[in-house]
Design brief:
- By secondary structure, this protein is of the alpha+beta class.
- Helices cover 23% and strands 41% of the residues.
- The protein has helices at 2-11, 16-24, 26-37, 51-64, 76-85, 109-119, 192-197; strands at 44-48, 70-73, 93-96, 105-107, 132-145, 151-160, 164-171, 175-181, 187-189, 201-221, 226-230, 241-244, 248-252, 259-263, 266-270, 275-278, 283-288, 293-300, 303-307.
- Strands 5, 6, 7, 8, 9, 10 and 11 form a seven-stranded antiparallel sheet that branches.
- The longest helix is centred in the N-terminal third of the chain and has 14 residues, at 51-64.
């Protein structure tokens, strides 16, 4: 009783907002910041990491953000379903994750997605490959969503015996990011494409290092909690290339110029640095006027399988 009386006396001369901040602490202060940043008529999505744990703070967030309209999302999949059916869906999310922080954070869907990817990796013990190289092609790299429940991304690991740097360039856009490597210390890269571009996209990677590195990359399906290793190519296989068919078939052009390609005699012009999908046949024979890489993919029980020359 004495403690409550002392607290009441201390709070009495303060303004309403100051009293709330004193009692509720960082959570209320963070909501004040969120409310100030929201547009006048903006609807905010309240995104919970764990409904059972975070629902109390989510309800209070709804109360303190008034008069802004809010919508509750128990998971990112709930939000993705809303995006598919409602063009007026909230464009930003008030993230409630009390296991991470007591504060509410105004975030985009992509930022929340990336945070969850880092929290719960599918490739739990990434091991670098046996071959050391300074330049290589990773034939597919992506950060995209499928139907709700399915999210695809690329993870990787790099290891050098020397202190070095590795630059990963995402194509076809040409955006890049350079990572520092400490001698004999593996660098694990989660959701590589998002780390480079800060958006969801699909393409391929070029790895360029200042010292030989051993590396591995994986195509990850988070919905099935499944990962499949991707080969690294120091150079493209010789032409002609024969590739077993799948459900999808691609031609990767790593050059600065258009590649004139024939697939089973049918001509195609493949833009510089592009990864172009073409119709898949049971067997595909590829010729071209410059170096290219052809490959295909198929799914078995939802799990990806790649075919290379």
């Amino acid at each position: 009783m004495l403690r409550l009386v002392r607290e009441t006396i201390a709070l009495a001369p303060l303004a309403y907002e100051e009293r709330r901040a004193r009692v509720a602490g960082p959570f209320y202060s963070s909501l004040r910041s969120v409310r100030a940043e929201l547009g006048a008529n903006e609807t905010a999505g309240i995104s919970m990491r764990d409904t059972r744990r975070d629902v109390t703070n989510a309800v209070f967030a709804n109360y303190y953000l008034y008069p802004h309209r809010t919508r509750f999302f128990g998971s990112l999949d709930d939000y993705r379903v809303m995006v598919l059916v409602d063009p007026a869906h909230p464009k930003r999310l008030v993230r409630i994750d009390t296991a991470r922080t007591s504060e509410a954070r105004l975030m985009t869907y992509n930022e929340v997605r990336h945070e969850e990817v880092l929290e719960t990796p599918i490739v739990r013990d990434p091991k670098p490959g046996a071959t050391a190289l300074t330049d290589a092609i990773v034939p597919m790299a992506l950060a995209i969503d499928g139907q709700p429940g399915n999210a695809y991304l690329t993870d990787g690991v790099l290891l050098s015996d020397l202190d070095a740097t590795a630059t990963l360039t995402f194509f076809p856009t040409g955006e890049s990011k350079t990572f520092a490597l400490r001698a004999r210390q593996p660098l694990v890269l989660r959701d590589v494409v998002y780390q480079i571009t800060k958006r969801l996209d699909a393409g391929w990677l070029r790895v360029s290092a200042t010292a030989p590195v051993r590396a591995s990359f994986w195509f990850v399906n988070r919905g099935l909690r499944h990962a499949v290793a991707l080969p690294l190519f120091e150079r493209t296989p010789p032409l002609p290339q024969r590739v077993a068919g799948g459900e999808r078939f691609w031609i990767l052009n790593p050059n600065d110029a258009v590649a004139n390609v024939a697939v089973d005699g049918t001509p195609h012009s493949i833009a510089p640095h592009s990864l172009t999908q073409l119709p898949a046949r049971a067997m595909n024979e590829v010729t071209a006027d410059r170096d290219v890489l052809a490959f295909s993919a198929a799914r078995t029980n939802g799990r990806e399988r790649f075919n290379f020359p």
